[in-house]
């Protein structure tokens, strides 16, 4: 009788990046079923053997800032993420989430970034979790609950503060979601749909968070001139509730704000001296969202990515459209509504300073429903590895890997992920440090990365370097 092999997968002769911000070591990695069971010089046979030939092997990358809430159900193969080595996505950021949302309503901006009104079919978080599990996406999914989603369920209009009774109703709904496996609460206080929510409203909701399990993630109320007070407000919510604070896509937005990253990071460090505070950052000097009239300016280029009334204008600069129409920038933006845009609103030196900070994780903030998405959707992680680590020398490769593996796993409580050690989940990415790079750009944004050779999720091949070949993701609840 033939005996079963020692391992289901053996990857030989690779530089092992374990996710802990330590230089790699050369060796082998063995997997049995969905777990790493041996590292170093591994003996024994395996059902499948991969010769690494000195490539890099790392834990699967964790994208801590996504808007893939409905995409993991709509397109569960998730090629934009798997093709750059991402094996886990955190959804529900910026106060917008697919659930809990009452069906049959017109969703407010910016919740429309996630999908059409009729795609919001999950009135209870348990319904959303079940839909993700039934879809069997190719990546693991952890989900925050959006403050704006809760507001639109219970307020007749969003340009005001919630009443006491409305806060109670939102707390009940949030509590139900947390009990069903939500990761925590997110806010997007800069948006009109949440800007009128006072600090007391957010603090009251945050009281439902268990700081040992749940996270408070915030798209700050102001990323422009008032960014430091907005940061202090976010950390205040964390201190009030006991929950760790994750500042979303930290940036110094707007030309008048350029050069302030040292001041902002000093404020972040000051707040972190007695509370768990961290941030994420995408590796580009341009943001992307809906076309926001408050952000219309001549100070930098604004690229229109889509427009419902004028779809032919997608892919053009707002200034060009305004000139063609012989109207002001603001009038052109009004006529394009609803629309999406890329804002070249940041300074590269600030991006580098924030990205290299020890508290900074990598998050793409990609918008999968945008017909001309910001290239961060397909390129963020290889851009950090190739452009910033290898070409610019902003930090060592092992630090780049840490920012997208061990650091986010620890900060979001994703146990047994983000590290390469015996007993860890076998979410793995095999890549070539010499050739890995982002190929997507602002003119041709839907392009897979170069240099990603293979991706495994739960010990099974998910991406073979050319296409998605398996869907093995799971829903991840806090533990």
Explain what the structure shows.
The chain has 479 residues and is of the alpha/beta class. Helix content is 27%, strand content 20%. The chain has helices at 71-74, 79-82, 125-135, 147-154, 164-179, 199-206, 227-241, 261-271, 318-325, 329-336, 348-355, 376-391, 397-403, 406-411, and strands spanning 9-16, 25-32, 35-40, 49-51, 56-59, 61-63, 86-91, 140-146, 184-188, 215-219, 245-247, 277-281, 287-290, 302-307, 316-317, 339-343, 360-362, 428-431, 452-457, 460-463. Strands 1, 2, 3, 4, 5, 18, 19 and 20 form an 8-stranded mixed beta sheet that branches. Helix 6 (199-206) links the parallel strand 9 and strand 10. Helix 4 crosses helix 5, helix 7 (227-241) runs parallel beside helix 8 (261-271) and helix 9 (318-325) crosses helix 10 (329-336). The longest helix has 16 residues, at 164-179. The model has no long low-confidence stretch (mean pLDDT 97).
> Beta fraction of the residues?
15-25%
Q: Overall 3D geometry?
A: globular
| Helix run count | 14
For the CA atoms, what is the radius of gyration? 22 Å
Question: What class would the helix/strand composition place it in?
Answer: alpha/beta
Question: What fraction, in percent, of the residue positions are helical?
Answer: 25-40%
**Would you count the extended β strands for me?**
20
Poorly predicted parts = none
User: Largest beta sheet, briefly?
Assistant: 8 strands, mixed
Distance between the termini: 41 Å
Mean pLDDT rating: 97
